[in-house]
Design goal:
alpha+beta
């Protein structure tokens, strides 16, 4: 009996998925006008699927083989591509691959505990992750789940009233 993909070494497991991953990424390639962000995007998504315990800029850069997180940050914050267009293509893929009459949409919030005060949306607020009021960000996620799988489709960061009513703070954090 051959081992399942989860029992294979990481490189062998990746090799087994590589063709499907390339086809998946090809759906999004046209969103990037330049080859550099397109290539960085494929490395970034692959690193998100990897074994890194934390998925912050430094750990992902290390997994990709970049010396610093600058390329990852440039991809996410200043490269010319549309997160909304990527979401729409992901929804099309989800319908094609996972769509089922028994499937449902699921909304869920998740708290991200923070130590500082500079991250967008951070405030002392209730976090289900912590089970109490903590200094955190709150993310709201839309996912699809059905008999064939589960896919996160969209995300939004909750912006507390303390941020909404503080234009200087929003400007410092580049929040419109």
């Amino acid at each position: 009996m051959s081992p399942g993909a989860s029992e294979l070494p990481a490189a062998a497991a990746w090799d087994a998925l590589a063709a499907d991953f390339q086809a998946f990424h090809a759906r999004f390639a046209a969103l990037f006008a330049r080859s550099e962000p397109r290539e960085q995007a494929i490395k970034y998504v692959r690193s998100l699927m990897g074994p890194a315990a934390r998925r912050n800029g430094w750990q992902l850069a290390e997994a990709i083989g970049d010396p610093t997180p600058d390329r990852v940050q440039r991809l996410l914050y200043s490269a010319d591509w549309s997160a909304d267009a990527a979401r729409d293509r992901l929804m099309d893929f989800t319908i094609e691959q996972f769509g089922d009459p028994q499937g449902i949409g699921v909304l869920n919030e998740t708290g991200f505990l923070k130590k500082g005060s500079k991250s967008v949306g951070v405030a002392r607020q209730y976090s289900g992750t912590a089970g109490k009021i903590e200094n955190c960000q709150i993310g709201v996620f839309l996912s699809y789940t059905g008999p064939r799988g589960h896919v996160i489709l969209d995300r939004r960061l909750y912006l507390p009233e303390s941020w909404c009513s503080d234009p200087a703070r929003r400007q410092d954090a580049h929040v419109p």
